[in-house]
Amino acid sequence: MEKEVTYEFRKKKTPEPTSILTQGSRRYGSFYNEEGRKLNTTGAIVIGDKGKIMYGSHGADGVRIIPESKMKDYKQPAQTLPRVRGHHNDWLQAIKNNKQAGSNFDYGGPLTELVQLGIIAIKMLGRKLEWDSENMQFTNCSDANRLINPSSRKGWTL
Q1: pTM to 2 decimals?
Q2: Cβ(50)–Cβ(17) under 8 Å?
Q3: CB of 137 within 8 A of CB of 148?
Q4: Cβ(45)–Cβ(53) under 8 Å?
Q5: Are strands 131-132 and 44-48 parallel, antiparallel or unpaired?
Q6: Do residues 105 and 64 share a domain?
Q7: How many domains does the chain have?
Q8: Residue 109 belongs to what H/E stretch?
Q9: What whole-number distance in Å separates Cα of residue 63 and Cα of residue 102?
Q10: How far does CA 33 lie from the centroid of its chain?
Q11: What is the rounded CA–CA span in Å between residue 84 and residue 90?
Q12: Domain identity same for 69 and 92
């Protein structure tokens, strides 16, 4: 069974999403087909107010603006951020050079939270979940809240 997770991001007290991220090959595959492109095996689509951005695994592979006409009109900005050659190398270079890694905890923490919420959503397939990030809980699903900090299996501790 194909599993698909759609995240809707809203500013506080805003009824409409400010952006939407969908993961799962069925959803973003249809965008590829509209453009006549080959389907990637992993990736996501971000749907915003002004269009859609499609990308492959880890946000780096096959980045495209949809529709193709917007992609052709896009002007690449000047490179201002250093490029990372793998997470492990970036981490080691940060230690060596006493600098912050590209995927530091300020960035990696919220990203990990997002991914973990997707895993919980897959376990709650078919239910719309509403997440309160300040209080670290779902506001509408106690079953999903039980999956946030599950108890360890016998013989395992943290």
Answers
A1: 0.63
A2: no
A3: yes
A4: yes
A5: unpaired
A6: no
A7: 2
A8: helix 105-123
A9: 19
A10: 22
A11: 6
A12: no
Eight-class DSSP state of 108: H
Residues 84-142 pLDDT 10s:
788 889 889 999 999 988 878 888 888 889 889 988 998 898 899 999 989 999 999 99
- Average pLDDT (61-74) is 84
Taking only the tens place, the pLDDT of each residue in 142-156 is 999 999 988 888 998
Q: Would you state the structure tokens that stand for residue 43, as one six-digit string? A: 């990736």
**Are residues 57 and 89 both part of a single domain?**
no
Q: Sort strands 44-48 and 137-138 into parallel, antiparallel or unpaired.
A: unpaired
**What residues are paired with 19 via a beta bridge?**
9, 48
H/E element, 30: helix 25-35
Answer yes or no: do 108 and 40 share one domain: no
Encoding tokens for residue 80?
């201002």
Last residue of a domain, one of 36, 52, 74: 74
Q: Are residues 49 and 21 in the same domain?
A: yes
